Protein: Protein-L-isoaspartate O-methyltransferase
Organism: Marinobacter orientalis
Amino acid sequence: MTSERHPGKAKQAFLAILARRGIKDKRVLEAMEAVPREAFVGARQTRYAYDDSPLPIEEGQTISQPYIVALMTEAMQLEPDNTVLEIGSGSGYAAAVLSRIVKQVYTIERHPMLAKLARERLADLGYDNVRVLCGDGTLGWPEHAPFDAIVVTAGGPRVPESLVRQLVIGGRLVIPTGPAIHQQKLLRITRVSEDETESEDLGGVRFVPLIGEEGWRDTEGRMTTPSPKKG
Ligand code: SAM
């Protein structure tokens, strides 16, 4: 399917895969068509840019599988006037896709080098409604809250309370969580009132770990869970 000589054909095949796998939201499909995934991967990965698979990026991280990016974006039930927070900027690709659908995107990355590369890449490509912060995304970005939707592109042991608190009432948090480091359930948490949420299970996924105050603790390469917050 991958073709350096016919990138247009490769992209059409890639869009057909997304549709076949059940992505229906026209705005999501249009955004995936508009954003050049090849510009978010290294030169050695360019030929695989329109394969439906994750690819390695710097710092031992990954650019997510396109189907998963589309699935999570669709699950956020976005409207054009929405403000969205993404945790885990990685290459900046998913932020670019989101920026084609909503008014404003904020994205946080814990690795300084990835945050810098994503910021420069997004600016060079003209995605001027995206702001990139380097920091611990499990704590959100309180200065710009509340958000209509939040997406977390790394898997944590549980749902970070700080993120739920930064949603508008009616806002959606799409997040992979679970007790295993590399295997999670994808959840959509809807904040239905000040203190209540509803949770839907969208199926099994495999993400790199969400490391931070309300994620996994990286203790010399060993992942441990933080003790539960006391009310
Ligand atoms: N959305 C990215 C893209 O489009 O390229 C892919 C993200 S990659 C699967 C997950 C990212 O989450 C990694 O870059 C990792 O460094 C980052 N990450 C993990 N824990 C984090 C945290 N607490 N705050 C911010 N970023 C975090």
